[in-house]
Amino acid sequence: MTDGVASRLVLIAGATSASGAAVARALTAAGAAVVAVGTRSDALEALHASVPGVTTHACDLSDLGAVTALASAVHTQGRLDGLIHLVGGWRGGGGLAGQSDEDWDFFDRGFRTLRNTTRVFHDDLVASPAGRLAIVSSTAVDSPTAGGANYAAAKAAADAWVRAVAQGFRKDAPSSAAAAIFVVRALAGLEERLGDEVVRLWSASPADVNGARLPLSLSTRSLPTRSLG
Question: Are the C-beta atoms of residues 169 and 118 closer than 8 Å to each other?
Fold first, then answer.
């Protein structure tokens, strides 16, 4: 068990989405120092105005060099204790024939941002006394459809990547670091619940959440009740 998220430094990738703003509000309310990252300066300014105290950075997270430069800027505040990756979105198609290369590039870009941020900030999370990584995945990974094949494949890749990170955490920081996957059918309407569950990751035992796929809904908690502080 940890002492919670208060005073932890947490980066939100994809922070200007509705879910990113909700997570930023929940984390700051719980006492965390939040670094919000997105690509649109105007949206970041709006987030900064609505969530006082959040530090914002514009960055193309699909560019490894840009993420490396971002890390140098973030480290002026300290080493990260958390990375919440919310880059992504939904684009469907008409059967397999409708799975366009343009759509795949959209989903692949989101996966690249996950690879880049987790590689660049991996050592931070391992060194932290309470390192946490979290993404939002989809029930489509377990029940893919032809019309959503691009989306499901990209989400499955992200799931596998985070579970690989979790395996590394078990080896390098078994008592302090955890990588978790929140699983939704659709995220719309669950943004505030996501914020609450992200905060609760720091009150959970790493052994309970590391590598776990945690269903997220309005009616149930994602994290085991026994692991709460």
Answer: no
Q: Which CATH number belongs to the domain containing residue 90 in this structure?
A: 3.40.50.720
CA 81 remoteness from chain centre: 13
Residue 1 within a domain:
no
Q: Which domain holds residue 39?
A: 9-227
Tell me whether residue 18 is exposed, middle or buried, using C-beta atoms within 10 angstroms of its C-beta: 0 to 12, 13 to 18, 19 or more.
middle
Which candidate, 41, 42, 24, places its Cα nearest to that of 33?
Answer: 24
| pLDDT tens-digit series, residues 87-146 | 988 777 778 988 999 999 999 999 999 999 999 999 999 999 999 999 999 999 999 999
Nearest to 28 by CA among 51, 50, 46, 11: 51
pTM over 0.90: yes
Residues whose CB is less than 8 angstroms from the CB of residue 84 and which lie 6 or more positions away in sequence, other chains included: 10, 11, 12, 13, 23, 132, 133, 134, 135, 198
